[in-house]
Amino acid sequence: MNEWLIIPAFFCAWFVIKLRGEQGFFVPLSMGTVRAMLRMAKVKRGEKLYDLGSGDGRTVIEAARMGAIGVGIEYSIPVHMLAKIRLALSGARGVTLMRKDLFKIKLDDADVVTFYLTPKLAKMLGPKFRRELKKGTRVVSAAHEIPGWAPVEKIKTGHFWTYLYKL
Ligand SMILES: C[S@@+](CC[C@H](N)C(=O)[O-])C[C@H]1O[C@@H](n2cnc3c(N)ncnc32)[C@H](O)[C@@H]1O
């Protein structure tokens, strides 16, 4: 093997390893599901929407197209880089992308919170939402219920359910 191939091979391996966030890989939602989640939350112009584990930024970019202020929180470095590229190509305004652990972000100014994570993270987020979210905040979770919370609405999106909660 040509020894110069070691460098790109190393970079590819690093990229794949880092596609995993703190907990869980980057698996993008379909744009149909993203739009259904935003419709469910009735996102309005000027509202602040946080997407937790925002992947390539598709949800916050779509929310910004509807006039909302989108804040995407993504832990994985290469996925965060992908989101930066997607945002630049989209030309959308009003989007902030943060490379952070979602548990280290305060959510007290959120009007809407969306996420597509794991059952374990959905369970861990429940107490954080109770502590930090103001009354009236809408929370939309793709695929996983927040244990112990009663959804005000649920719809079938593709092969899974998506849940809307209101604080
Ligand atoms: C299933 S993907 C969803 C991506 C995007 N929201 C979408 O719908 O297309 C979950 C994302 O959450 C990120 N993630 C997992 N744990 C995280 C954490 N503690 N803080 C920030 N991001 C996290 C992963 O890196 C991954 O990109």
Quaternary structure of the protein: single chain
Task: Name the bound molecules.
Answer: S-adenosylmethionine
Low-confidence stretches: none
Specify the CATH architecture: 3-Layer(aba) Sandwich
Q: Could you please say which CATH topology applies here?
A: Rossmann fold
Radius of gyration using CA atoms only: 17 Å
Overall pLDDT confidence: 91
Q: What string, H for helix and E for strand, traces the elements in order?
A: HHEHEHEEHEEE
Give the count of structural domains: 1
Helix content: 25-40%
| Number of DSSP E strands | 7
Strand order of the largest sheet: 3-2-1-4-5-7-6
Strand content: 15-25%
Would you kindly provide a written description of the structure presented here, covering whatever features stand out?
The chain has five helices and seven strands, in the order ααβαβαββαβββ. It has 167 residues and is α/β, with parallel strands linked by helices. It has one domain: Rossmann fold (3-Layer(aba) Sandwich), CATH 3.40.50. It has a seven-stranded mixed β-sheet, covered by helices on one side. Helix 3 (58-65) links the parallel strand 1 (48-52) and strand 2. Helix 2 (31-41) crosses helix 3 (58-65). Residues 21-24, 26-29, 51, 53-55, 58-59, 73-76, 79, 101-103, 116-117 line the site of S-adenosylmethionine (SAM).
Topology of this structure?
Blueprint: H1 6-18, H2 31-41, E1 48-52, H3 58-65, E2 69-74, H4 77-90, E3 95-99, E4 112-115, H5 119-132, E5 138-142, E6 153-157, E7 160-166
Parallel strand pairs: 1-2, 1-4, 2-3, 4-5
Antiparallel strand pairs: 5-7, 6-7
Helix pairs in contact: 2-3
The chain binds S-adenosylmethionine.
